Amino acid sequence: QANLQTTLASSQTQIRxxxxxxxxxxxxxxxxxxxxxxxxxxxxxxxLTLSELETSxxxxxxxxxxxxxxxQRKVHKILRKHMDALKIDRGVxxxxxxxxxxxxxxxxxxDFDSNLFELGISQENFExxxxxxxxxxxxxxxxxxxxxxxxxxxxxxxxxLEEKILSPSFLIYSGGSIQVPSIHxxxxxxEFKDWKAHGWADMRKAIADSINIxxxxxGGGFKDQEGLGIKKIEEYLQKFGWGKRLGIxxxxxxxxxxxxxxxxxxxxxxxxxxxxxxxxxIGQGDILVTPLQIA
Length: 295
Known about the structure:
This protein has helices spanning 2-55, 69-86, 123-131, 140-143, 153-162, 203-208, 212-220, 230-239, 261-268, 274-281, 291-294, and strands at 91-96, 103-109, 172-174, 177-181, 189-193, 199-201. By secondary structure, it is mostly helical.
């Protein structure tokens, strides 16, 4: 009987210890819950502060603003439809507010399901994303660098007007190509082609019909007609935000490239020629821009 009482007393002591441990664990859980709630409150306050900071930023800063989910879905669907029609697998759409430069919507395809990262992506899914040859993590809208093509021509035209090189009504003739003698041997002629012979054209027609010879001429000059020259071209492209990061609130933005005599010498160990200026004037050659810079 004495042994039984001793065993019972020992069991009661163990029960009380267990109850104490359970209560201690409950208290710790309650403290954890309180800490978690405080963290959530702090996060909400931080998000509000960040929102206020973004609202008060200089309007010239490119800010990803009002990215409405429904609009995002519609834009994605429309872009995908056009890509399918054109049989291409890469595309970008950027919608901006022209009054302040705010980015309202931005879509880059191929893309990925961001929900995979929401609660922690599995190793298997992560490997699939990063090994995908389509590079869905590569945001082409801000990181893709491409030749500008004829989107440069309105800037070249604006620069020519600003520098008073010619008037909007001044006529330049496009016969399909121009020939420029070599600076080393005048008997050697270099030909620079248009995509067709356009005849006489003023600035309005040159922009509307994308007339290369017109922009060769006002960019680099031809015969008696003065051109901007590469230094002025570089200056005006920079004024339009080319050749530098615009500062959008997304990681990975690239700056593009405005080629220059200094750049060509340093990167290629080659001299700059009039042909380089001509090609830059129509958005070909070495010039690179991001879709965001064009937008």
